[in-house]
Amino acid sequence: MSILYVCHGHPRYAKGGGELAAWRLFKAFEAEGASLLAAAPAAETLPPGCEVMSVGHHQWLIKPSLSPLQHGTEVNLHDGAALHQALGGLNPEIVHLHHYVHVGIDLVHALRRWFPNAGFLFTLHEYWAPCAYEGRMLRRSGDLCDGPEPEACADCVGEEHRADLVIRDLRLQRMISSIDHFISPSKFLKDRYVDWGLSSSQISVVENLPAERPVMATSRKVDSNCELVLGYFGQLNPWKGIDLIVEAVKIARVKYTQLRLEINGCNSGDLKPAHSPYPEFVKHLQSLLDSSSMDGVQLRGRYEPHQLSGRMASVDLVVMGSSWYENAPMVIQESFLHGKPVIAPALGGMAEKVTDGHSGLLFQPGDAVDLARVMGRCCQESALVEQLQRQVQSMSLQGEHVLEQHSALYDRFRGEFQPVLQSPRVDDELLKDLRLNFEPLGANCELGFLMAQLGINRSSLFRWLFTPLAGLELVLSEKLQDFFSKPEAVQDPVMASDMVVDRRTGIFFHAGELRDVLEQTGDDEIAPDQLFGLDVYRQQHGKYLYLVEKFLASVSDPSTMHVFSDFHQELTEAAMHRIMTCLRAMGKPSGSILLFVQPCSENDRINQVRLLGDGLQLATIRRLAPGEHADRIDLDAWIEVLSRSRQLQTTAN
Fold first, then answer.
1. Which residues contact 20 (CB under 8 A, 6 or more apart)?
2. pLDDT: is 314 or 528 the higher one?
3. Which of 76, 190, 86 is nearest to 129 (CA)?
4. Half-sphere exposure of 333 toward its Cβ, with a 13 Å CA cutoff?
């Protein structure tokens, strides 16, 4: 099976958990024609003027993204450019994405354009979608975050980035709509994305592929009465909790002097504030290590993967202190592979991966005293550590099962978007009905292309607009007053080059000449009086006033079928009822159809329509068109849905 893996880094340069997860899958399927596309650690890694560089057979590096909020792509994505040529010989059945950070959201749309018949899977590794501030759901203050809120997010990223946050969310929603299925290495991570808005049925929980069980160096004999050695393996940063661990060791050693800590991944040079991106943190850590009671702590320096087994052999347990919701920490997987139990905070994916009393011990997050208590217990209960080690060593390896799970998902989603070979037959009466009465409400241009394929040539207000649900609800609640009042040029390269966005509503419009004028002003905001005086604005505004009048006239017709496609996957039943309430206030008669259409999940019946109230219907269509190809509609499915909608209305009336 040919698979293109896309990752935020190459393990030659970055050995984080996400990079290694993608790399191991690439190596597992390499013999079947797998390829790997990864972001370079810095633009300087590539030769001057180079955007794409081969680093092995079917392995490429690209220039990294420089936009931490909007996640733009720094590579030319035009057909025929260097990246397109590099990937030109590929014909993947699956594109498996492991991040958009560093590679950029725009790349995802380009890959969908270049490989329209591939299935697209996405492994979630952190919380970058719900958390714009470094993707850890950890506030700037260091406190845990329950989820995105506009004010809280602005506090973290800066008030000056409020507009960036709105555009970021739209870009993410558009990218997410182009993904066929998501993979989460932990249930905790999946639940956070479900809280954020993804459907539970869109996400499968599958572990990251572990390394093969190593040929282990001879481990030390445990004698906790004589000496107990804890090992820390990881980076040196404020959220990994190494300072908490050192503080806990200091507390525990007052009573248990046999306790020692080996810190792997850090040498003395890393503790110099001038050499660290976190100078205040390393200064604090150094002060802890300089304490006279810290004789039991040893810095063992950085290490390469081939040195890990030797480092693991010298410790009795591995200890973590992370202050954020770790997802599926690689260090836990590596510890179990080496037969070592893990002491970890009862937090996030760590509490899911470590079973208290079986594969390790849990402590209260952020509590050095409670961690010291757990360390003391390991010193005091002579048989505890050996028992935990035996239990970990008897745990079955998951590698083969993880590969089977990935293969099953690849089989399920490859070739998801096959072209329609012939146009379906449309009932003449239904076609006549739709040509007279079909009225789109958004959310993207798919309904415009559907109208074109059905021969509906009349103009319509929302036909070619990119309409978030909240924007639709706002303009309908205002009865379309001030519908097009605060346009600004769209800088997003993924959007069509002629688009402007209404800052007040978040609705995107095609208005090329106006966009050109707005773009020429740069960062200088045009005063309302000046904007309203522009000929190009008056022309566009006049056009939309005309379309608003047509829309308002159609609302009161009982035959009008209002249709909204849930392209952004943001529907709730409450929102649907609010939209219907708005239309009723504008004169929509009782029994007249308002149809919401969302892609079906694995538990839904395909192309089914159900009644939610008087005229309010919800359909689960086989699929909606992918984001970069709104014209690639499933016409068979749409005809079936629209036909059933009318039948349901007839039965209800």
1. 11, 208, 211, 330
2. 314
3. 190
4. 24
Q: How far apart are CA 182 and CA 204, in angstroms?
A: 6
Q: What is the DSSP string of 473-495?
A: HHHHHTTTTTSS--EEE---TTS
- 515 φ/ψ angles, rounded to the nearest 5 degrees: -60, -40
Angle at 553 between CA 550 and CA 554, to 5 degrees: 90
Q: Which strands sit side by side in the sheet containing 119-123, from one edge to the other?
A: 52-56, 59-62, 35-39, 3-7, 94-97, 119-123, 181-184, 203-205
pLDDT for position 420: 39
CA dihedral sign of residues 461, 634, 567, 508: negative
Tell if the pTM clears 0.90, that is, is over it. no
- Superfamily, domain 3-205: Glycogen Phosphorylase B; (3.40.50.2000)
pLDDT confidence bin for 495, thresholds 50/70/90: low
* The Cα angle at residue 175 between residues 629 and 68, in degrees rounded to 5: 140
Pick the CATH number of 228-396 from 3.90.1720.10, 3.10.450.50, 3.40.50.2000, 3.40.50.12780: 3.40.50.2000
Does position 528 have pLDDT exceeding 90, yes or no?
A: no
Domain with CATH 3.40.50.2000 in the chain: 3-205, 228-396
CB 598 within 8 Å of CB 641: no
